[in-house]
Amino acid sequence: MKRQFRNVGFVIIGLMLLISGLALVKLLSDPHGLLLALPYVCIGLGCGIFGHGMGELISQRAIKNHPDIEKQIEIDKKDERNIAITRRAKAKAYDIMIPVFGALLLTVALMGVDLIIVLLLVSAYLFVVFYGVYYRVKYDREM
Known about the structure:
- By secondary structure, the chain is an all-alpha fold.
- It is built from five helices and no strands.
């Protein structure tokens, strides 16, 4: 029940962000600075949060009357082989994301897009890279 309440909260928050982002796009006739990107960030976050919450609600409702399927899903989630495969796939995705995202940044910068958008992309890129470096150092110390 607690999980369902959290997912309903995600759906509501996502819808609020989505609607506020769409309203900002319509209401702001000449945005400057941060207001240039804020509506689109709200729309993106709203869609993502709404989709996550709705997906979880639909999944819960689909397996509600099937305890055998729910038990099998829990076993699959905790299986060491599946965990290792998931981690390896994430590592490969990170490895390819870094050069692809860097090329996208360079392309956007060369296209002459507003500086705010380029700086948002650069900050996201650097956040991901520093996050990876932090955990690399952390795991090197542990092992």
